[in-house]
Amino acid sequence: MAHQDGDHWVLNGTKAWITNSWDASAVIVFATTDKKLKHKGISAFLVPMPHSGLSLGKKEDKLGIRASSTANIILEDCRIPLDNMLGSRGAGFKIAMQTLDSGRLGIASQALGIAQASLDCAADYALKRTAFGAPIGKLQAIQFKLADMAVALESARLLTWKAALLRDSKKPFTKEAAMAKLSASEAATFCSHQAIQILGGMGYVTDMPAERHYRDARITEIYEGTSEIQRLVIAGQILKEYQL
């Protein structure tokens, strides 16, 4: 919630799961300035960090992306100047939706990196690890896994590039961003899983990077909207197109 008090806005509330919260120099807060207007009563604010009235919760002990701090942000009578509002009053929801598409492109790119690293790790291991007098990369079962990983990776990469091109061309890319995020995150999970299968026991220990890739991949199907949400966004955009 946010209310005006003289020449300041006063912010109150808590937001969970804030990535890089302990390392950020500022935070963008979306707060309700008029309950009666529902989503049209949400405004955006820039709050520098550290700042009086803003505190952080404990760092979460996460499955993956452990180099990135994640914690709650707590606002208790946090006062900021009126000029710290971003855009006009009530424009917060629109701003959030506009940035969400670009955020999904960022997650897709992150997921592509994980998928590529998983393929690199698996292919390198398949060439070096020998069984029955030959590299395991000569086994059909291993080759099938590598082929499936490469197809998933390149398909997701092309979707991501298409969405990025549309964004750079200032064209609508909501559907394509959701498709890229969905495809790339599922490719990251798939490729990291297959890499562990190829490495066997070595994929389960920290001596090799495969287990880290597997842990890091999981979040890409969750933040900036779960895979289920991406499918809803994609379907909604498709139906809109066919209604025209």
Would you mind describing this structure in some detail?
The chain has 244 residues and is of the alpha+beta class. The protein folds into 2 domains: 2-86, Butyryl-CoA Dehydrogenase, subunit A, domain 2 (Beta Barrel), CATH 2.40.110.10; 95-243, Butyryl-CoA Dehydrogenase, subunit A, domain 3 (Up-down Bundle). 48% of the residues lie in helices and 21% in strands. The protein is built from 5 helices and 9 strands, in the order E-E-E-E-E-E-E-H-E-E-H-H-H-H. The chain has helices at 92-128, 140-168, 174-199, 210-218, 227-243, and strands at residues 2-5, 8-19, 26-32, 42-48, 54-56, 70-81, 85-86, 130-131, 134-135. The strands form 3 sheets. A 4-stranded antiparallel beta sheet has the order 1-2-6-5, with no helix packed on it. A 3-stranded antiparallel beta sheet has the order 3-4-7, with helices on one face. A two-stranded antiparallel ribbon has the order 8-9. Strand 1 and strand 2 form a beta hairpin. Helix 1 (92-128) packs parallel to helix 3, helix 1 runs antiparallel to helix 4 (210-218) and helix 3 packs antiparallel against helix 4. The longest helix is centred in the middle third of the chain and has 37 residues, at 92-128. The radius of gyration is 22 Å and the shape is elongated. The model has no long low-confidence stretch (mean pLDDT 97).
Instruction: Report the order of strands and helices.
Output: EEEEEEEHEEHHHH
Any guess at the CATH architecture of the largest domain? Up-down Bundle
Strand order, largest beta sheet? 1-2-6-5
Helical content band: 40-55%
Q: Going by CATH, what is the homologous superfamily of the largest domain?
A: Butyryl-CoA Dehydrogenase, subunit A, domain 3
| Rg, alpha carbons | 22 Å
The CATH topology assignment of the largest domain is: Butyryl-CoA Dehydrogenase, subunit A, domain 3
Give start-end ranges of low-pLDDT stretches: none
